[in-house]
Amino acid sequence: MQIFNKIEPLRAYLRHHRDNHFSIGLVPTMGALHNGHLSLIKASRQVNRITVCSIYVNPVQFNNPADLEKYPRTLEADTKMLEEAGCDAVFCPSNQEMYDQPSTLKFDFGSLDKILEGEFRPGHFSGVALVVAKLFNIVQPDKAYFGQKDFQQFKVISRMVEELKFDIELIGAPIIREADGLAMSSRNVRLSKEERSRAVILNQCLRKACKGLRDGDSFSSVKKMVTEECNNNKIRLEYLAIADKHNFTLLEDVKNPDKVVILIAAFVGEVRLIDNMLLADH
Question: Is residue 104 part of a domain?
C-alpha cells in the first residue's frame, strides 16, 4: 500500500495506472476509520483495480471550532486497517497541501443545503462540496463511494457532480451498524460508556417511527413519540424529519412509504449523532 501526503506524487502514481486502463475507486474519509469505512473499501476493491482512500479532516466544513478540535485523529491505526483491507493507496494531505491559500469559494445548493444538516451546520455543505471537488479533481476516480448515514451529504455531492459534469459514478452504500443497532460513526469513540448505552435509543426511535408511519400514524404523532423518548433518556433531539429519498424535499406526512427516508440528529452528552432509515426497508 502506498501512502501519499502530496498531490503531485499521487497524481503520477494514478496516471501510470490510468494509462494501463485500470479503473480507480475513491473512498473519501476524515479518518477514525471503522467497519463502515472498510465496507466501502471492500465495495471498491470488488470492481476497481485500484482503490484510493483519502484521510483528511477538512477544516472548512466545520462550523463549530470545538467540534473540529475534538474530532478523533487516528492516522496510524487507520493506515494499518486500510493495509489489512487491501487498499492500494492512501492520501493524507496537510491543510497546507489542500488549501495553500485561504479559500473564498462557496457553493450554494439552493434549498438542499439550507435544511436539516444545512440549517444546524451553516456552511457545512459548502465546505464538504469544496473538499470533495478537490479530491475528485486530484484523484479523477471512475467511482466514488459514500455511506448512507450521511444521506443529505450524498444528495449534495450528487448535485455537485451533475452541475459540474464530473465523469464519476457515485456509489451509496448501506449503513453499517453495531450489534445493538447504533450506526457506526467516527464520533462514537467520544461517547462515555454511559452515553454509549443511551445512544442506541436513536436507532430504536427510528425503528419505532418507521413502524408507526408504515402503520398509518401521522408524522406529528410519531415525532411526539420520538421527542418524549429522547427527553426521557436525556438525549437532546435536534431534528426528526421525513423527506423524499429521491429529490430530498421535506414532507409533512407519508403518502408513499417506498419513497420516504426518515432522518434524525441528536446530542448524546456533547456528541452529535445522525442516523436515518428508508421506510421501504422496514
Answer: yes
